[in-house]
Amino acid sequence: MSWTLTLPLVLPFLTAVAAFLLRANPAGRWVSVVGSALLLIAAGSLMLETLRAGVVVGQMGNWPAPFGITLVADLLSAIMVVITAITALAVSVYALADIDRRMEMLGYHALFNVLIAGVVGAFLTGDLFNLYVWFEVMLISSFGLLILGGRKEQIDGGIKYVTLNLVSTILFLSGIGLLYGMTGTLNLADLSLAVEEVENKGLLTVVAVMFMIAFGVKAALFPLFFWLPAAYHTPAFSVSAVFAGLLTKVGVYALIRMFTLVFDHDIGFTHEILLWVAALTMITGVLGAAAQSDFRKILSFHIVSQIGYMILGLALYTPLALVGAVFYLVHHIVVKANLFLIAGIAQRLTGSTELSRIGGLYKSAPLLAVLFLIPAFSLAGFPPLSGFWAKYVLVQATLEVEAWILAGVALAVGLLTIYSMTKIWAEAFWKKHPEGIDPTPDKLDGPTRAALLLPVGFLATLTIIIGFFPQPFVALAEASAAQLLDPTAYVTAVLGGSE
Amino acid sequence: MEALLAIAIGALVAAAVYLMLARNVLRFIFGLVLISNAANLIIFTGGRLTEGVPPLIPEGANLPAADAANALPQALVLTAIVIGFGLFAFALVLIFRAYTTLGTLNSEEMRVAEPKGDPLL
To answer: In this prediction, does ipTM exceed 0.95?
Structure first.
């Protein structure tokens, strides 16, 4: 059993237990920070191991694949685990100031760490049913986090989030049942070989579409995204930051995994659907954001529109497009989590997230203004920030296959993103506060300010680093895309050599 | 036997979809319970049905009899039932909480998070 592979899973669970036991102790909140830091180290060592070996495989309980449960880390998985750990660390530091005593007593930190464990598990598993279990781990802890505190709008948003996600879970489970019935295996690597021998390709395509819908709900694709803007603006800011950064991306990851490794028998049909879904997701998301007037609601709709770009990369299914998708995933998680954290600080200082009721942040908190501009411009795709390279690669990929309309959509959505970001800028930062409040950060005490601003600064720095030195990140995305398009290494690593 | 189960699954899904289309969220949850049982039956049937041959390995042999029942789908269904039960319990409590704080079970009237004046909605 390889420890580099199991540690990123075990650590968050241990942290959750410790955090739960220490929930009444004021020192308990640091457990989460320490746990996330350790997770980052474990994720880093997994990344190094993956870079060295290509694909890291561990058979749980030493049952050889495909009989036991396999954990696999190829480059995409390792990248996602590292970025999960980075987000977890940033959010857990932010939570020191954001989460109040009552929510800590209700077990916020334990739920948060179980959520992280679920996300990491989903990235690392090499077994379809095990993926379902990790989705459930993630789902049940996210339910808890979403309604923790029990305010009216949280319960309201929670109902929609819970019900629609449960429907997608059922579809996922039915898809697993049908796929198992056709192939007799659940191991992803084994499935990738077994689907080629299925005679009834039509039925296989039906099952593929079931998976597409199930993961489409999780990833918030058009027209399945309605739960997201209904719920993401209701919980605590740390919670919505980690949701915005990670949860939908697990859906995107699952789509990428299934539709490169298993369902590649009828690309002309399945990926064509994904292509148009991607375009519509981008457009509806960005138009929805343009119509909103609440800081977090605007950002929620932008999650939807950005998911469209990643799915565009998957749907084009060329090497360059997949490079774009992987790069976009990483860039988006960093930027989006950061914007939600900034929304939290803005709410602290000005008293609301409703844009018409706040203002004056530029004058009184210039540092925050700069920290907002970095992820906001990156989201819109300004050079030389990370979002520019992500969009550049994707647009180039669409031009390469001469999909002019899609390239136009991708560029136009980028422009409209700038519109939303300037709206937030003009309303929250530029104009005077309507109630004459002067939102200076000095009102917060030192430790609170540090806990709020440090993670924001950290993630903004990361955005700048990816923006100015994109070469190593693009190279990594290229290597990962190559692995996705040619899963031979993945399959032989899982089925061929067991330890 | 497979045909019978397929019809049963179809009936369950039909009833579940009918319930889930209701505006009352309690009916929705009941629909969800039915459809999750349909999903469990799909897995069970997907593993092929065999009669009267338990998957036991006779003494001295290394493998169970060739026509033995498939034990894996039953393990999967068991896991799915346990998880589904947990989620159902949570959903029920959530709905009860929604009823006490929002004062309604009608999903059309749940507009706290997305007020009526909101554009697009």
So the answer is: no
